[in-house]
Amino acid sequence: MSDSNLLTVQQHILREQLRFSGASGEFSFLLSGITLATKIIQAQVRRAGLVDVLGEHGGVNVQGEIQQKLDVIANEAIVQALTSRASVGVLASEENEEPMIVHKGDSEAKYAVVFDPLDGSSNIDVNVSVGTTFSILRRPEGAAGDNPEAWVLQPGTEQVAAGYVVYGSSTILVYSVGHGVHGFTLDPAIGAYVLSHPNMTMPDRGKYYSVNEANADSFPDKYNKYLAGLRNGQYGTKYSSRYIGSMVADFHRTLLKGGVFLYPPTADNAEGKLRLLYEANPVAFLAEQAGGVALDGKNRMLEVKPTSIHQRVPLVVGSKAEMDDFVALED
Question: Mean of the pLDDT values across residues 29-36?
């Protein structure tokens, strides 16, 4: 990449910020906190086999899941990076039971940030890609500083920005502020995220589907009919299965290559397993911005009104053609 087309994520964010009326630089400073935290996380992920950060931490998070050591490290990195941003009023993490009030609800604090610090962390020990997801919401009109739930219990349509970082063979940040989707690869030589995937769009149709088929015996009938159609060529081509088991990595492939990613409800998780605020909404926001579609199985994901901080939902997300085929099936 020549110097003439070198564009860092910070430069890009500053340029995107001009789309907001009355831009003051606070939004770009907020996003710089997220990029800083993800650099810290990727450094720990890269060294996971060399230092004592592999394995279980010993605690159990609010989801009832055993925390990995890197879950705790990643959560602390994001919290520390964002609490220094005056524009942040509330932080909500998948790892914490309750949202955190920052700056005591100061009137200058305009944003809530919700995040999953390390999606797929159980894969760290076997060197499989993991990721971070984040969503930024504006403080609702009249929301009190001491009522953090009012800040975060907003439908995905109210997201100001959303994105993820995938820590794999390279570290890639993908984000949107509602005007397209852009990807940046971390260049370790200069320590900066550099624009590598401008104006990302999903192909109209792909050739892969991604789902944990080990649970297929308890999927609703519609999902199994759909999967059978993908496998037998009912939709014009026979699809191949690709499933990593890390949502960020599976969605990143879907974003680049098209196809569909499914996380259906099951007998054990009748309401779905993915978290609406921390996982489904950021992914849905990016998918729509890239020309794709995201549903909770029936409805547009971004229109689902959250009722609790850790609400779970099913998720079906992918290219328009695959999603049209899914919607056309009868329940």
Answer: 94
Q: Which residues pair with 111 in a beta bridge?
A: 88, 138
- Helix H, strand E, coil C: the string for the chain is CCHHHCCEHHHHHHHHHCCCCCCCCHHHHHHHHHHHHHHHHHHHHHCCCCCCCCCEEEEECCCCCEEEHHHHHHHHHHHHHHHCCCCEEEEEECCCCCCEECHHHCCCCCEEEEEEEEECHHHHHHCCCEEEEEEEEECCCCCCCCCHHHHHCCCHHHEEEEEEEEECCCEEEEEECCCCCEEEEEECCCCEEEEEECCCCCCCCCCEEECCHHHHHHCCHHHHHHHHHHHHCCCCCCCEECCCCCHHHHHHHHHHHCCEEEECCCCCCCCCCEEHHHHHHHHHHHHHHCCCEEECCCCEHHHCCCCCCCCEECEEEECHHHHHHHHHCCC
According to the model, what pLDDT value does residue 183 have? 98
The C-alpha angle with vertex 129 and arms to 125 and 135, in degrees rounded to 5, equals 120
Task: Quote the pLDDT of residue 2.
Answer: 46
Using the CB atoms, write b or e for 174-196: b if 16+ within 10 Å.
Answer: bbbbeeebbbbbbbeeeebbbbb
Asked whether the beta carbons of 183 and 200 are under 8 A apart, the reply is yes
pLDDT for position 122: 77
Distance CA 282, CA 156 (A): 8
Site of tokens 């964002």:
82
Q: What angle do CA 196, 262, 37 make, to 5 degrees?
A: 40
In the predicted model, what is the mean pLDDT of residues 124-131? 85
Would you say the pTM of this structure is higher than 0.85?
yes
CB 51 within 8 A of CB 57: no
